[in-house]
Amino acid sequence: MEPPAAANNPGIPASSAKAGPSPATRNKERMWELGVALSAWHFFSAVKLALVLILGIAALVLAGTLIDQVPASVLSDSRAYSQWLTVEHQKYGAWTNVFDRLQLFNVFHAFYFRLVLAALALNIMVCTANRLRAIWIAAFHTRVRMGQPFFEHARFRARMEVALTPAEAAEKMRRTLRRSRYHVKLDRDAQSVAVFGDLNRLSPFGTIFTHLSLILILGGAVAGGIWGFKDSEFIVSEGATRPLGNGTNVSVRLDQFVEEYYVDGPPRDFRSDVVVFDGGKQVKQGSIRVNSPLRYNGIAFHQSFYGQTAIVKVEDASGKTIFNDSVPLAWQTNDGQRPIGSFSLPAQGLDVYVIGPQSGLNDPLVPPGEMRFEVTRQSGRAADPTNLVQGKAVQLAGLTFTFERESRFAGLKVVKDPGANVIWIGAAFMIVGMVALFYLPRRRLWALCRETPSGTTEVLLAMPVQRDVSLESEFEHLRAKVARALEPERAHNAKGGSDA
132 and 208 in contact (C-beta within 8 Å)? Predict the structure, then answer.
């Protein structure tokens, strides 16, 4: 094996064979990375991007409002979700599959909704960072001395001539402005004294508070979407225990649902007496009312609705019980007249629909004490619709069905939102920012006191134009106070841009 060339040639450094990129190459790489970072920064600082993202969020929220959203409990059960889509197909027709593929039945948990929220939050953060330095300089490093053109062209301006020295006039003005809660700075030179008065100088930081509030609200919404859940149709029957799902080990048992009425008829109280289990261990027990939810480990259980259930037993040909549970009649038939519920028998490939009587009416189709059963399979109807009398067994599709009795169910709205507190903090920041911007506007007054050839002092006052309808009255108020402070030495006064 021949030795490396570098080893035989003393004129070539041995390390040159392993030398890395040259300084020029490294500088080019750093410049390229810096250019990419700056391009990304400019992209996310664009106001047009914020407008596009806000319109996108508005469109998605509108879609989520107009299009039915699947309950969380249904989404976690593939069979229940399939049945839910079947019901929705009656409303949306051929668009049902399109909406399903686009996740429009679950907009607020879709990845693109979270992506747009995150992009808007980043856009707001970049815009806030861009404005922070300018706001800081304007608040704490404002220019005190302004030139003659400023006093000549300011929208609100006044001129006075007083028999005082510039220092005396400036001191009187300083005291007057301080009594009006202005923060005052002076800048002296040999011929003049410049005065700057600043009221509510921290109010521009209200913009930062409002931007921060939007970031917190968006962040809270994203956190709630990722780590939280909301189920507006969590149904549990009396005596039954139902798992909550959504990645938890929590289950709920309804001991009883109670409705109470006043003597003259109006409802007095609705409550659900429940027991909460976590990992099979009882962790909480209590009553849930409309305005009194039960809370456990960040999960809130709200009373939402209630209804009747049918206790049903199904046996196969050998007499083995294949189903014995309550069936909540939580939905409405297509005509909206009767309550309906369903359950499945997967081993037999059957879906069973249970229809109850019309509420408060003598229903000719489903008399009191009966339930109407419709047994279907994927290919079509498995048996003719049949009414079952309570306690009497009936043969349907080769199985024995028994409607044992009626019971009650409670419909709960279950919410876990880990971002709720963040959203509340964001709302508080929003209020602080809005109060600072709209109720405590910043007011800035510049003045120049300089000696005239005649030995008097010329006092110039000016305020720049800003979005404040009360600014003119504030300037007139300050002008009058300064004029009174300089009396009786005041010899000349002109306002509104006139020097007469």
Answer: yes
Q: Is 326 exposed, middle or buried (0-12, 13-18, 19+ CB in 10 A)?
A: buried
pLDDT tens, position by position, 156-204: 999 999 999 999 999 999 999 999 999 999 999 988 999 999 999 999 9
Mean pLDDT of the chain: 86
At residue 7 the predicted structure's pLDDT band, cuts being 50, 70 and 90, is: very low
Residue 303 counted as domain residue = yes
Q: What is the CB neighbour count within 10 angstroms for residue 292?
A: 11
Q: Give the pLDDT band of residue 405 (cuts 50, 70, 90).
A: very high
**What are the Cα distances from residue 296, in Å, to 153, 227, 276, 302?**
66, 16, 8, 12
DSSP-H helix ranges across 141-205: 148-153, 166-179
Flag whether pLDDT at 39 surpasses 50. Answer: yes
Q: Are 399 and 312 within one domain?
A: yes
Domain that includes residue 272, residue range:
228-307+413-418
DSSP 8-class letter at 69: P
The answer to whether residues 240 and 326 touch, using CB atoms and an 8 Å cutoff, is: yes
Q: In which residue are the tokens 């319109």 written? A: 55
Of 207, 210, 21, nearest to 131 by C-alpha is 207
- 335 and 298 assigned to the same domain: no
Alpha-carbon span 64 to 76, nearest angstrom:
19
**Contact status, residue 478 vs residue 180, Cβ threshold 8 Å:** yes
Answer with the one of 384, 418, 452 that is the final residue of a domain. Answer: 418
Q: How far is CA 336 from CA 181, 332, 356, 371, 455, in A?
A: 67, 5, 12, 17, 94
Average pLDDT over residues 14-41: 68
Length of the chain: 500
| pLDDT category of residue 494 using cuts at 50, 70 and 90 | very low
Report which DSSP code applies to 3.
Answer: P
**3 state SS of 72:** helix
Evaluate if residue 469 carries a pLDDT over 70: yes
Is 171 in the same domain as 121? Answer: no
Task: Copy the structure tokens of residue 139.
Answer: 């608040």
Among 473, 479, 475, 481, which residue's Cα sits nearest to residue 463?
475
The confidence score (pLDDT) of residue 467 equals: 73
Q: How many domains does the chain have?
A: 5
> Token pair for residue 379?
């290919």
C-alpha of 405 from chain center: 45
Based on C-alpha coordinates, what's the Rg of the chain?
38
Q: Quick check: is 316 in a domain?
A: yes
